[in-house]
Write a structure and sequence with these properties.
Radius of gyration: 27 Å
Low-confidence stretches: 1-24, 146-168
Distance between the termini: 92 Å
Structural class: mainly alpha
Number of strands: 3
Helix content: 55-70%
Shape: flat
Strand content: 5-15%
Order of helices and strands: EEEHHHHHHHHHH
Length: 168
Amino acid sequence: KKLKSGLATRDSEHVDMDVAEEEHKDPNAVSNGDRDRFEVELEFVQSLANPYYLNFLAQHGYFKDKSFVNYLSYLQYWKQPEYAKFLRYPHCLHFLDLLQHKSFQKELVNVPCAKFVEEQILLQWQYNAHKRLESQHQPPSFKRAGAASGNLDASLTEGAAASNKMPH
């Protein structure tokens, strides 16, 4: 078999290399074009988590472009679990939802709006970090009884009952 300018020759038969490669491809393989599109859309969707980028888009008139707004609508598929699992900044999906509303698009032109949104993101991260630390430092009886069931009152009642049984 000789390879010559994109053709394979064997006993005077010419086979297009693209066809030959297609026959041996894994049916579950993703083409380079699909992979590139996935990566570009993933990166763009995640960039929506940055309020200053949203401000940039608004100031440069992107939200006035019907095709861009339609593209944002198309990107809603990222909310499906099989795609969302690839997101590093899942709050970008919340902004993708908000960007479906003209009122939010219009407000983003203002830098104070972007600053306010950034502050809210930071406050949410701090709150979540505090809650994670708090749940890691709870007494074992609280974690076992109340945290699993989500019933704080039951946990506190069980803890109080247990302390009343202890000899004084």
